[in-house]
């Protein structure tokens, strides 16, 4: 915590002699950094925080009102709205008359003679850090700290693009979306290894259609530099130079990938200094390149695509506007049960709410046409629901 502190009666108005050279300076002419007793005082009032706060004071030439800038690490992901709501509720209830809450653009003199001990300025609340203050480490954080330079970076991307009968890419959206993490590492001076699954290969067998060769060609064109395709990268040693990008052949061909093999993950972990998961579309699957490798790699972090999704989910579910309606789509209901349970808790669905499953809708197909109006009976323009 940093206290921006009005000067007090133990400070001098003009420069004088003092053993503390900063205490010797005029409080009316300078901003004077000094130690603060506020952190210790908070610990005395709130025992749970005793010894957990530290900071300093900056004394400034104002005669009244001080500002405290408090920075803390939350125990879970949070949002600005949630923090402000908690303080506002406390100001109206338990700390009424002691703690104030303000969302107006006020300055220090506006609080002169205010009888409350402290006023919370809601306009200055910020949530910063990795993935909205979550325990997720971002690739951008590592790049900013120069930790990536000269490191071997292993990126698990989602390059599972559609191919036509001739094996040509028909939509390269996923490749283009993955360029962010790849370019970020390459420009930071890392030796970059990228892998992905493609199709549904049989472990231990690399069929021509399952090869990432078309992806390597397209990635080379998009990056404007040659991207080598490395085959047998688990069993055969290979080199990657700083600033170079190589594509590691279809990861689902490796025996043990789908079973989330720790032995396979340990081999992959030895290839890298930093592991990056940037494959949100497959992050829910416990496989060697998505789960086990994250545990065995020296450093594991989230790429920009994964972070963007996590941020969106945090904003949507952390402190959503009410009422909250959750709409979940998909053809396999069995894979949605866990997420439905989680959303039900966050949506606070009441006991009187009834849910109708869409499982039975396909049975209505002979009698109904599915359109933007949900469905309409065949030979009828009137929109109806299935019986």
Automatic annotation (TrEMBL):
Where in the cell?
Answer: Cytoplasm
Q: Does the keyword Protein biosynthesis apply?
A: no
Provide a GO biological process annotation.
glycolytic process
Keyword Secreted on entry: no
A molecular function (GO) held by this record is:
glyceraldehyde-3-phosphate dehydrogenase (NADP+) (phosphorylating) activity
Q: Which reaction does it catalyse?
A: D-glyceraldehyde 3-phosphate + phosphate + NADP(+) = (2R)-3-phospho-glyceroyl phosphate + NADPH + H(+); (2R)-3-phosphoglycerate + ATP = (2R)-3-phospho-glyceroyl phosphate + ADP
Task: Return the EC number.
Answer: 2.7.2.3
Q: Which family does it belong to?
A: Belongs to the phosphoglycerate kinase family. Belongs to the glyceraldehyde-3-phosphate dehydrogenase family.
- Record-given protein name: Phosphoglycerate kinase
Species annotation? Medicago truncatula (Barrel medic)
């Amino acid at each position: 915590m940093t206290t921006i502190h009005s000067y007090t009666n133990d400070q001098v108005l003009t420069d004088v002699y003092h053993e503390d050279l900063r205490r010797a300076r005029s409080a009316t002419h300078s901003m004077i950094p000094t130690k603060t007793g506020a952190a210790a005082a908070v610990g005395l009032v709130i025992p749970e925080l005793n010894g957990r706060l530290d900071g300093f004071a900056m004394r400034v030439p104002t005669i009244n009102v001080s500002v405290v800038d408090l920075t803390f690490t939350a125990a879970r992901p949070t949002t600005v709205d949630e923090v402000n709501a908690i303080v506002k509720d406390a100001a109206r209830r338990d700390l009424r008359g002691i703690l104030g809450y303000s969302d107006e653009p006020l300055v220090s003199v506006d609080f002169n003679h205010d009888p409350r001990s402290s006023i919370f300025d809601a306009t200055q609340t910020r949530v910063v850090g990795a993935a909205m203050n979550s325990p997720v480490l971002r690739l951008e954080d590592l790049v900013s700290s120069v930790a990536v330079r000269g490191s071997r970076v292993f990126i698990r991307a989602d390059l599972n693009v559609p191919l036509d009968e001739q094996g040509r890419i028909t939509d390269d959206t996923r490749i283009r979306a993955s360029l962010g993490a790849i370019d970020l590492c390459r420009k930071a001076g890392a030796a970059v290894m990228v892998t992905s699954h493609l199709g549904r290969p049989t472990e231990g067998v690399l069929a021509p259609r399952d090869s990432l060769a078309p992806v390597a060609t397209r990635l080379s064109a998009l990056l404007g530099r040659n991207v080598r395709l490395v085959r047998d990268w688990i069993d055969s040693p290979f080199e990657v130079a700083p600033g170079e990008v190589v594509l590691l052949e279809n990861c689902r061909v490796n025996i043990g990938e789908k079973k989330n093999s720790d032995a396979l993950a340990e081999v992959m972990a030895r290839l890298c200094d930093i592991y990056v998961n940037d494959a949100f579309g497959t992050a829910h699957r416990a496989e060697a390149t998505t789960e086990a490798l994250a545990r065995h790699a020296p450093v594991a972090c989230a790429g920009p695509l994964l972070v963007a999704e996590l941020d969106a989910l945090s904003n949507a579910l952390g402190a959503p506007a009410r009422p909250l309606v959750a709409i979940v789509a998909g053809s396999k209901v069995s894979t949605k049960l866990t997420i439905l349970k989680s959303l039900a808790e966050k949506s606070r669905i009441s006991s009187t709410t009834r849910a109708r499953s869409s499982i039975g809708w396909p049975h209505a197909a002979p009698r109904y046409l599915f359109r933007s109006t949900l469905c309409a009976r065949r030979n009828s323009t009137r929109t109806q629901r299935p019986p």
